[in-house]
Structure prediction request, 317 residues.
Amino acid sequence: MFWTGELIARSAPIRRRVSIERSPMAERAVAAYIGLAIGDALGATVEFMTPGEIRAQYGLHDEIRGGGWLRLKAGQVTDDTTMALALGEAILAAGHVDAPAAAAAFDAWMRAKPVDIGNTVRRNLITYRQSGNPVAPPSEHDAGNGAVMRLLPAALATYGQTAEQIRAASQAQAHVTHHNTLSDAACETLTFAVHDLLAGKSSRDIEGQRVAPLIADFPVFAYDRKRRDNPSGYVVDTLQAVFQAFFATESFEDCLLDVVNRGGDADTTGAIAGMLAGARYGMAGIPKRWLRALDDFTRVRCEKQAEALLQLACPTA
Ligand code: MN
Ligand code: MN
Prediction:
């Protein structure tokens, strides 16, 4: 009977293995999105803990294990990733970064009862429901990291555009919930940093050409050697911790371990650092154990969106 089986196997339709040949740039875009989700899933376990509490409970927190104050399943992500995915879908549906589409997407996202939601996001989405205006009122107090954590799809969709177009898109998505000068500066800096990393620039280039000008304009972002532990949701604290971790390490894994073990707003520092480190080190740099642990549905959505958004910006990439 052996030969019969072989015959059947041979006559069966050939299933082509779809091998995804990505360009180096598309590879970095995918790694940035997966990096964001991995940083979120890894950091969420220790969000709001102090470094001492993390050490006492885990030693070094280096596995995607779920739990935390949100009692997550291992590999589950939080608002940082799910808001980015909601924004990415809105951008793809509209064909560009569009404030009304982003506001409607965030509102639908909030109605679906996300596992967590920031105060500024909630407040300004409720205002949007009443006013229909996708631009939140300017506020010097709304300097949280909520617009920064979800900027990746807007960054991918604007790759290759003029600086003015990039700034306008960065603000359009940010101002739905965070209409604030420091948040704007952070969003813009990280958007340009992502673009540079997609183009293959180094961490040093980012530090000299993107972060140094940010600090020149807004000295409050300056980060010194003093380790920024327990970073809060204040966009300045968040970026200082992310910059310290990203520029002091030379791998995706080291960068994420450095930043999430500082505790504080660890899912968000993890997400932002994961975005940068993913774009910098590519898929090859992402530890396999973390990739396997990430929720499958989330991983596939991140991959597909990253490819589609880059394709939208840059059909030849
Ligand atoms: Mn979160
Ligand atoms: Mn957070």
